[in-house]
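Minutes, methods subgroup
Present: GH (chair), OT, SY

1. OT presented the first of two proteins processed in the latest run. Sequence and structure tokens recorded below as shown on screen.
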Amino acid sequence: MCGSSLPPLAQEALDTLASSVSDDDSFTEQQAYAILVEELDLNQPAAADIIERLHMHGHLYEVEDGFRLTDS
């Protein structure tokens, strides 16, 4: 992934998303929220903050129907 270091929870969220979605599949914000809430026991605002951080740091990129993970 990108060279920027992430806080431990954001890295855990990235790893969780990577193991939960196919490399070729896009996912919506709502799907990402659901994964993070379920797998990491986060609330919706915390999940939203982490998704935004991952996007801003280049670990997620936007596509027409949602997001994709940046290739590792």
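2. SY then presented the second protein from the same run.
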Amino acid sequence: MAYRAASSPTAPPERDALTVLVGRGRARALRAVQGSATTTELARRLGVGKSTASEHAAALRAASLVTTHRTGRTVRHTTTDLGHRLLAATPVGS
């Protein structure tokens, strides 16, 4: 049985390595945290609702890519060292 290549070997990749690893939404969310962001800021940066931003943050937290701290009604997400290293190793378009 033979398989044909989906694209030519010289074609640019459609997705960067981070997107392949964690998915488009999570990759966008990690990049949008940009060091630190509240859930509201993250939602605004991604153009999504707060609940969706919160779900992305929870998944990134579970993967140890961000930490989350609550102060009163404000929830702030901060990129971990692992998250920073992953972002540095996988620039957009890599």
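Chair's summary of item 2: Residues 17-89 form a domain with the Arc Repressor Mutant, subunit A fold (CATH 1.10.10.10).
Next meeting: continue with the remaining queue.
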